[in-house]
Structure formats: C-alpha cells, structure tokens
C-alpha cells in the first residue's frame, strides 16, 4: 500500500531515500567511550583477530560489489590480503583456507544458497566465518562464527539499494576494528575515518536533494538507449559494476561495467556515436593521478562520439568541461566515495525503469533472495 511505501511510488524509491539512515544506523552503538571501535558483539577473541592473515569475502550480486569496495579499504588499512569471490565460484575451485583465514560472507537476506554453501565449505576447512547481514536470525548469520549486522531495515524492493551502502559501512567498521586490534593504523587515523563516515549520511542527503532532477532528466532523455557502459577505477570500479547491475535488473537495459583501465584493452571497440557511458570520476585532490587517468578515458570515448555522464566531485573543472552531464558528489575521502557515488546510479536505474513503465519493485525473472544453488 501507499502507506507502507511511506508516500513514495515504490519501495525502491523509499529505500533509496533511506540510504542516509541505513549508513547512520549501521554506525550506531559501535564505539566505546574514547571513540574507539567496539565490536564485542563479534565475540571473537582479539588474539584470534591478530592471527588473521588473509580475508576472503564471499557474496553474490550487489553484496559482492560491496565486498569489492571493502577490499580496497581493508587492504589499505590492515595490510593483509583480501580476496573477493563470487560465492558460487569459490567452493568449486579448492580455495586455500586455513585457521588463520577469515571468511566474510556478505548477504542482505542471509538466505542466499550460494553464499551459504560457500560459508559451509569454509568452516569445513577450519576457517572462521563472519557474516555481514541485514536480516536478524537468518540462516547465514546462524551458521557463522560471528555476525556484524547491517541496520538498513527491511529491504522489500528486489533490487538492493540501502543494504548496499550499509554493507560497505559494516565492512569498513570491520576493517577499522582489525586495524585497531592489529595496530596497523594510528588512533588518530581511525578517529578521522570514523568522523568522515559519520559525515556521510548528510552528504548522501545532499545528493538526493540536489541531484535527483538532473538524474531524472537524463534518464528520460536516454530511455531509448540500447546499451550503457559504466566505468570507474579503484573504488569507482565496483561502483560502476553496481550501477550497471541496477540498470539491467530493473530497466532491462543491456549494460556492461568495467575498470576504466580496461577500456583500451577491449570495450572501446563498442563505442560508437551516441553510446551512453557513465564514468565514476575520482577526486582531483591529493595526487590526483587516478583523476587524470579517468579524465583521459573520458576524452578517449568523447573523441568517438560517446555521450558521457560523469559522477564527479563538486567543482571538478574537468568533469564540467568534458562530460555531457555531471551528477555531482560532495567532497569526501576517496575510500568513502562509493557511499555517495552509487546514489545517483540507484536513482538513474529507478528513473529509467519508471520511464519505461516497468514494475521497479518486482523486476521480471528475479527473486529477492535466491534460495537455490
Ligand atoms: C539476488 C538479488 C540481488 C542480490 C543477490 C544477493 O540475486 O536479486 O539483488 O544482490 O541476490 O542477495 P543477498 O541477500 O545474499 O545479499
């Protein structure tokens, strides 16, 4: 009913607008009096945490892209290797698992059979499994050694939105906690990152408040496009993958997401005049190396007539100059940028689906949770 949708046209509308709350709520109650991370809820002995020498993240769909984002942050903070693998591939390739491997299973529903089978396999091999899950008491957390819940609230629309941002936050909390226990970051560095995380809900709010009109206009102008490419680098790469997935899931548009550096190794052959390409542009602050590379990717595709939609930091003069349309993000640390960059892409998929008059909450052929292998 309309009331259940909080006055929005669809659950997906409502849930995208709950992104800020999902981030804020997932941060709540996870800090001690000195601002230190307190994840006692994990009930893992800190000594066991110190022993962890490798993390393997297993997940499917949107949750796997949250895992890919987490890899960049956790490796940077904790200095241990993080692998990310689709749960259905993981089990069948004889992965190397030891008692010092921490397997992190990310799942909104907690019922995805592929992910469940992967975690069972990991436990059989003697590894510890930690679930990042949005559904209290579901099977995946029940069968895991530890659980860190995301507090996104129930997600009804089939295409995952608010759960994705909450999964990134939970994985980041885990990464910062590991860094705290292993001493790989200074206290000040952890505090700064936590402060930056706390500032994200209002930045997401800003995107929702100020960018929705541009996103909607862009979507209705591109409703007849046959395909879309999405590209990004570093944490922008999984964001591109997720943006592409959202659009295929609910607007039934053929999309491909890929790492911007791969452009010249293949996908550029697809670019013809008018091809819409969504580019996640990293910040130009700091050394800005990646920014330059992504801007030159935009120039490459523009030279071949592409229609470029950039997701870029407010005030980025290159995005303004080279892109046909810009979805702006407020400035934030690079590692946290996926939390804002995905928001216009969620809205974009929603608006495309609405322009095509599709059932955004119940796309054809898909299930909210896939409980078969
Ligand atoms: C299904 C859904 C996707 C979701 C994936 C993983 O395929 O349609 O939206 O990302 O499962 O679901 P989970 O509940 O494990 O996060």
Question: What is the strand and helix layout of this fold?
Answer:
Blueprint: H1 11-17, H2 19-27, H3 46-51, E1 54-59, H4 61-78, E2 82-86, H5 87-90, E3 101-107, H6 113-124, E4 128-133, H7 139-142, E5 146-149, H8 162-182, H9 187-221, E6 227-232, H10 236-251, E7 254-259, E8 276-280, H11 289-303, E9 307-313, H12 317-322, E10 325-329, H13 338-355
Parallel strand pairs: 1-2, 1-3, 3-4, 4-5, 6-7, 6-8, 8-9, 9-10
The site of 6-O-phosphono-alpha-D-glucopyranose (G6P) has 16 residues, from helix 4.
Supply the key terms.
five-stranded parallel beta sheet, globular, alpha/beta, binds 6-O-phosphono-alpha-D-glucopyranose, single chain, 15% strand, 46% helix, 373 residues, aminotransferase
Q: Specify the structural class.
A: alpha/beta
For the termini, the CA-CA separation is 32 Å
The main sheet comes to: 5 strands, parallel
Beta content comes to: 15-25%
Q: How many strands?
A: 10
Shape: globular
Structural features, described:
This is Glutamine--fructose-6-phosphate aminotransferase [isomerizing]. It catalyses: D-fructose 6-phosphate + L-glutamine = D-glucosamine 6-phosphate + L-glutamate. It is an enzyme of class 2 (transferase). By secondary structure, the protein is of the alpha/beta class. It has helices at 11-17, 19-27, 46-51, 61-78, 87-90, 113-124, 139-142, 162-182, 187-221, 236-251, 289-303, 317-322, 338-355, and strands at 54-59, 82-86, 101-107, 128-133, 146-149, 227-232, 254-259, 276-280, 307-313, 325-329. The protein has a 5-stranded parallel beta sheet with strand order 2-1-3-4-5, sandwiched between helices. Helix 4 links the parallel strand 1 (54-59) and strand 2 (82-86). Helix 2 (19-27) runs antiparallel to helix 9 (187-221), helix 4 (61-78) runs parallel beside helix 8 (162-182) and helix 4 packs antiparallel against helix 10. The longest helix is centred in the middle third of the chain and has 35 residues, at 187-221. The radius of gyration is 20 Å and the shape is globular. It binds 6-O-phosphono-alpha-D-glucopyranose. The site of 6-O-phosphono-alpha-D-glucopyranose has 16 residues, from helix 4.
């Amino acid at each position: 009913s309309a009331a259940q949708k909080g006055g929005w046209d669809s659950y997906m509308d409502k849930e995208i607008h709950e992104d800020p709350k999902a981030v804020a709520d997932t941060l709540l109650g996870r800090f001690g009096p000195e601002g230190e991370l307190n994840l006692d809820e994990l009930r893992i002995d800190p000594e066991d945490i110190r022993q962890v020498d490798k993390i393997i993240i297993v997940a499917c769909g949107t949750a796997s892209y949250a895992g890919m984002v987490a890899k960049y942050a956790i490796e940077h903070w904790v200095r241990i290797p993080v692998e990310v693998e689709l749960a259905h591939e993981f089990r069948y390739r004889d992965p190397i698992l030891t008692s010092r491997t921490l397997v992190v299973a990310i799942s909104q529903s907690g019922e995805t059979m592929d992910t469940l089978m992967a975690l069972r396999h990991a436990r059989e091999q003697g590894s510890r499994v930690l679930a990042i899950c949005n559904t209290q008491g579901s099977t995946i957390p029940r069968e895991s050694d530890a659980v860190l819940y995301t507090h996104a609230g129930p997600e009804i629309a089939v295409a995952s939105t608010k759960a994705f941002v909450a999964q990134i936050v939970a994985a980041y909390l885990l990464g910062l906690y590991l860094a705290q226990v292993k001493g790989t970051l200074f206290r000040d560095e952890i505090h700064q990152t936590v402060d930056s995380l706390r500032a994200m809900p209002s930045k997401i709010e800003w995107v929702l408040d100020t960018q929705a009109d541009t996103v909607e206009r862009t979507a209705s102008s591109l409703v007849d496009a046959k395909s879309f490419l999405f590209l990004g680098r570093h944490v922008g790469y999984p964001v591109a993958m997720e943006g592409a997935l959202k659009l295929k899931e609910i607007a039934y548009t053929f999309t491909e997401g890929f790492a911007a550096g791969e452009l010249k190794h293949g996908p550029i052959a697809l670019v013809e005049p008018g091809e819409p390409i969504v580019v996640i542009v990293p910040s130009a602050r700091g050394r800005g190396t990646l920014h330059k590379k992504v801007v030159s990717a935009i120039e490459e595709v523009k030279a071949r007539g592409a229609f470029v939609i950039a997701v870029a930091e407010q005030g980025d003069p290159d995005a303004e100059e080279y892109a046909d349309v810009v979805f702006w993000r407020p400035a934030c640390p690079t590692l946290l940028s996926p939390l804002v960059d995905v928001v216009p892409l969620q809205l974009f998929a929603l608006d495309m689906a609405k322009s095509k008059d599709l059932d955004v909450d119940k796309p054809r052929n898909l299930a909210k949770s896939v409980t078969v292998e």
